[in-house]
Specification:
The chain contains eleven helices and eight strands. It is α/β, with parallel strands linked by helices. The chain has a domain at 2-135 and 155-184 and 236-241: 3-Layer(aba) Sandwich (Rossmann fold). It is globular, with a radius of gyration of 18 Å.
Length: 250
């Protein structure tokens, strides 16, 4: 499955995603960390802005993809580490940049992860998190969650943009920007990348075409003559910084 993500158009190109590069350029970072790196594309993207980049993931197979791809992606010095997002093995205030892309909806304890981010970021350090997000409409969000969980049991939950802002600020970071876009998806590629069985995939196809009105309005399912189905998930990128100083009176 790891290599299927390396070859996926959704994960290897910008598609309609906001480019994380736009949030990190214009500044240089001593140490940058990509959390839930997958095949490493986001780590490779931010490498030119960092003295040192560490690509982390909880899946060894994904880290092997990083090792395989880093030379051809012009980021041969990218380091790899087997790391759970909620238990970052870095010292307090030691990291200048943390990025994630299309990963945080898999994290087991999202508030715990954000607390870890706040802990390890240096004063003035930057978090840029880009991920698919739920609609603000609660019914459409619940439908999306049920569908995603059936597709991939490692799915946690997609937050709505307003929920992301609250969660990041509750962890003690200051949100500086929120940008919205979307990612174009297509069934059956979307189901095949998650390793769904033929039977489960066929059932999923029926449910996508029978989506309730609120989900149809949010995700715009369109059946094509060849039987494929086009749709989209919204994407939110949240940029946040740690206060430059936590010393009283500074």
């Amino acid at each position: 499955m790891a290599q299927s993500y390396s070859n996926s158009t959704t994960h290897t190109t910008r598609n309609s995603l906001v480019d994380i590069r736009e949030f990190v350029e214009g500044r240089h970072y001593k140490i940058g960390v990509d959390i839930g790196t997958g095949p490493g594309f986001t780590a490779f993207t931010v490498a030119p802005f960092c003295d040192r980049v560490i690509a982390t993931d909880v899946t060894p197979q994904m880290l092997e993809e990083v090792r395989r791809l880093r030379g051809e992606r012009d980021a041969p010095e990218t380091q790899i580490a087997l790391v759970a997002a909620e238990a970052l093995p870095f010292q307090d205030a030691s990291i200048d940049l943390i990025v994630t892309r299309t990963a945080s909806h898999h994290f087991v304890d999202l508030p715990g992860w954000l607390r870890e981010v706040e802990r390890v970021l240096a004063p003035g350090g930057l978090l840029v998190n880009g991920d698919t997000c739920a609609p603000e409409d609660e019914s459409a969000a619940a439908w999306m969650h049920e569908i995603e969980l059936r597709r991939d049991r490692s799915h946690g939950r997609n937050l709505a943009p307003s929920q992301w802002k609250t969660a990041v600020e509750d962890a003690g970071l200051h949100v500086t920007d929120i940008a919205m876009s979307y990612v174009i998806l297509q069934y059956p590629d979307w189901a095949e990348r998650a390793g769904m069985t033929d039977g489960d995939s066929a059932e999923m196809r029926r449910d996508l075409l029978a989506a309730p009105d609120e989900a149809q309005q949010a995700f715009d399912f369109q059946e094509n003559p060849d039987g494929t189905i086009d749709f989209h998930w919204d994407v939110v990128v949240v940029s946040a910084v740690k206060a430059a100083s936590t010393e009283p009176g500074a």
